[in-house]
Amino acid sequence: MSKKLLVTGGAGFIGSNFIHHVLEQRPEDSIVNLDLLTYSGNLDNLSDVESDPRYRFVHGSICDRGLVTELVSSTDCVVHFAAESHVDRSIDDASAFIQTNVLGTQVLLDAVKACGGRRMLHVSTDEVYGSLPLDQPEVKFSEHFSLSPNSPYAASKASSDLLVRAFRQTFGLDVVTTRCSNNFGPYQFPEKVIPCFVTRLAQGMNVPLYGDGKNVRDWIHVIDHCEAILLVLEQGRAGEVYNVGGDNERSNLELTHAILDLMDLPKQRIELVADRLGHDRRYAISGTKMKEEFGWEPRRSAWPEALRQTVDWYLNNQSWWQRILARANADRQDARG
């Protein structure tokens, strides 16, 4: 049976990859993509499907109550990606994160409640759990961990997670939440670490590495993540949280060395910089629940091959990220007046 999906934030990195994945894997389904096209939203990510009759783009905000309610009422289910997501930006100014991640999620939940009978999948992050110690590698985030966010970004996502839970408990909404580790792959905005490092190196610049480089992240390929989201959307139990990990822990220093090796560049291209404020030491996800309930495990995230493919994508698509960097520079100049 065909479904019509409302995808919020579908012009971003994960959202655009999810739209591609659904159109490829579910040819009977159709998608409405709601995106405000802020700095990280990019319709170039979806240029190859813009004429597909199964796809429609709507320019707008998830905080626009009338528009959101209209779109929810005309679709069968909602996949909610729209979020401010860059930790450094949240440290500089948290207001946009509260507006989009918290209030925007509330508007969306209100619309789902008003329209009734629709499933909503809320896409969250492992950062809501806080930080794990480096010296206890056996400890990983499970869905039963308490929420202990340490950055304004993570706090805003934890707040949206709690709203989703509350709307389930209070109103009985058919909602599910996924919490994922660090994604990598094509179409990621160049301020994120992997495309940032590859594009800087391609331009002859050094790469800035926070602190001692020992902070550890679990890396998952974006298509593995999209596969898991679609699975939870279709089969997940209402009210449940599902952690989605790549089983691929690497320190930031290991990541940087791997990129340099793939680009045949020396370690001297690393420039150590002051550590990020409140920098979480380690994230690691237990994928036990996904495996036990669905038999799902990541299939595309193993390094070095998955990282090699990602680095090659940015090197082979320089016009894509050059346009983004040019727009970002123009916006900065306009802001200076």
TrEMBL record:
One of its GO terms (biological process) is nucleotide-sugar metabolic process. Its EC number is 4.2.1.46. Residues 6-301 form the NAD(P)-binding domain. It holds the Pfam family GDP_Man_Dehyd. SUPFAM superfamilies: NAD(P)-binding Rossmann-fold domains. InterPro entries: dTDP_Gluc_deHydtase (IPR005888), NAD(P)-bd_dom (IPR016040), NAD(P)-bd_dom_sf (IPR036291). This is dTDP-glucose 4,6-dehydratase. It comes from the Bacteria. One of its GO terms (molecular function) is dTDP-glucose 4,6-dehydratase activity. It is an enzyme of class 4 (lyase). CDD domains: dTDP_GD_SDR_e. Belongs to the NAD(P)-dependent epimerase/dehydratase family. dTDP-glucose dehydratase subfamily. Transmembrane segments: none annotated. NCBIfam families: dTDP_gluc_dehyt. Keywords: Lyase, NAD. Signal peptide: none annotated. It catalyses: dTDP-alpha-D-glucose = dTDP-4-dehydro-6-deoxy-alpha-D-glucose + H2O. Its cofactor is NAD(+).
